[in-house]
Amino acid sequence: MLKVCKFGGTSMATAENILKVKEILQADRERRFVVVSAPGKRFSGDKKITDCLYQSYDEAKKTGRCGQSFEEVKERFLALEKELGVNVEMQRLLEEIEEKILRTLTPDYAASCGEFLCAKLLSAVMGYEFIDSRELVMFDYKGKLNAEYTNDVTKNRLATVDGGAIIPGFYGVMPNGNIKTFTRGGSDITGAIVARATDASVYENWTDVNGFLIADPRIVPNPKHIRSLSYKELRELSYMGAEVLHPESIFPVKVAGIPVLIKNTFAPQVEGTAILPDIDEQEGVITGIAGKRGITGILVEKGLMNAEVGFTRKILSVLERYNISFEHLPSGVDTMSIVISDHELEGRTFQLVEDIKKAVSPDKIEVQSGLSLIATVGHGMCYKPGTAAKIFTALSKCGVNIRMIDQGSSELNIIVAVSEEDYEKAINAIYKEFIDDFR
Predict the structure, then answer these.
(1) pLDDT digit of tens for each residue in the chain (439 aa)?
(2) Beta carbons of 282 and 387 less than 8 angstroms apart
(3) How many Å apart are CA 270 and CA 264, to the nearest integer?
(4) Is residue 362 a contact partner of residue 302, using CB atoms and an 8 Å limit?
(5) Which of 212, 209, 224 is nearest to 432 (CA)?
(6) Is residue 51 helix, strand or coil?
(7) Residue 225 has what DSSP assignment?
(8) Second label for 355, Cα 20 to 30 Å away, from 27, 221, 269, 419?
(9) Using CA atoms, how far apart are residues 64 and 66, in angstroms rounded to an integer?
(10) What is the largest CA-CA distance in the chain?
(11) How far apart are CA 134 and CA 132, in angstroms?
């Protein structure tokens, strides 16, 4: 039996928290491979180390010096080294990093240093081997993870470890030797990569919550805890905004069928949430509710569009030219809605609409901004007639107008678009309509 653990930024934020991590690791000797994030916030209003490092890079490019942001990084790590009572030559490492930030052409190196230094500290605390992620995680020339090569390299390198190893998350290396990072929260992916390569019995992801909740507690008061969910349900909920786990982290463990366990560093006795290849028995009709704000819909209307060969391809080719990805593409006989996140549009809506007009000559095109998406997710929905009606009834009762409906062929989720102003009201209405199924 071998377990891979990943500890998030809150778990690594203070010396006290790092010592809690040490207790967790020492409590189970099967926890041999450990991936860490950079130190997160210690209190409300504090800064995450990764944010400070990005700011250091920006300051270096503008002024020729790393400035105050890097001073904050120095203070945090020097204090951690002292409070933990270890010696990793932190002063020297920080000086080397500052010099390299001034010379590097990309922000990825700067951003990776929080995980690097944090792993150095924990390896000294635990007496485990430190292994740099640049030895393990391989990106191709386009900046995409080379998954199979990474698995082979990681498997061979970790097979040489005697005892335990601490590995920084979030980054790897390009073929030219440059550091490349994942998107924010990408240490979850590193942990999953290590779990796959070591054929772990479980991938434990330690954070500051007790696992997944049925809905966002900032919106629904005291939502119920999810004991278990499937890989597919995780993907849907994470993609739609459930922030416990990076949505891409499931792919490495999915290949090997490794279960993921979400645990709370500050309450290790709590059960947590298990993420499994499949769920044999669904507890309720739905598993969870998640959503996204900041959505725009572009409604395209044209008579007989369904008979026009290549119509959809022409629209999607316009999006491709702008390097814009879409969320959903519901359609009718003569209508199609292109649902896009506002951050993808970035002020280019008018020009995008003009180019769509040129591409397909629609009878009508309308931009619907100020939308939110809400996904109701669960394997149990496909076995329970009337689930969609229940959702729509709940929204109707509270006066929420549905602007769009989309359901995948797997019947795993039902997605509705509502106005931004109705977002929280709608989530509460759906939660209350289904809550009895979880009692």
Answers:
(1) 899 999 999 999 999 999 999 999 999 999 999 999 999 999 999 999 999 999 999 999 999 999 899 999 999 999 999 999 999 999 999 999 999 999 887 899 999 999 999 999 999 999 999 999 999 999 999 999 999 999 999 999 999 999 999 999 999 999 999 999 999 999 999 999 999 999 999 999 999 999 999 999 999 999 999 999 999 999 889 888 777 888 899 999 999 999 999 999 999 999 999 999 887 656 678 899 999 999 999 999 999 998 899 999 999 999 999 999 999 998 889 999 999 999 999 889 999 999 999 999 999 999 999 999 999 999 878 777 888 999 999 999 999 999 988 887 667 899 999 999 999 999 999 999 987 544 4
(2) no
(3) 7
(4) yes
(5) 224
(6) helix
(7) B
(8) 419
(9) 7
(10) 73
(11) 5
Q: Are 333 and 303 in contact (CB under 8 A)?
A: no
Q: Show the DSSP H helices in 159-203 as ranges.
A: 187-197
> Length of the chain in residues, anyone?
439
Task: Outline where 322-386 has alpha helix (H).
Answer: 342-345, 349-360
Q: What is the CA radius of gyration of the chain?
A: 24
State both tokens at 200.
């772990």
349 HSE (CA, 13 A, CB side): 18
DSSP state of 44: T
CB neighbour list of residue 153: distance below 8 Å, 6 or more residues apart: 135, 136, 138
Specify the amino acid at residue 344: E
Task: Give 4's strand partners.
Answer: 33, 203
* pTM attached to this predicted model: 0.89
Point out which residues pair with 418 in neighbouring strands: 372
The answer to whether the CB of 163 falls within 8 A of the CB of 136 is no
Q: Which two tokens stand for residue 231?
A: 């890989």
Among candidate residues 98, 135, 132, the one with its CA nearest the CA of residue 118 = 132
Q: Which two tokens stand for residue 213?
A: 């909740």
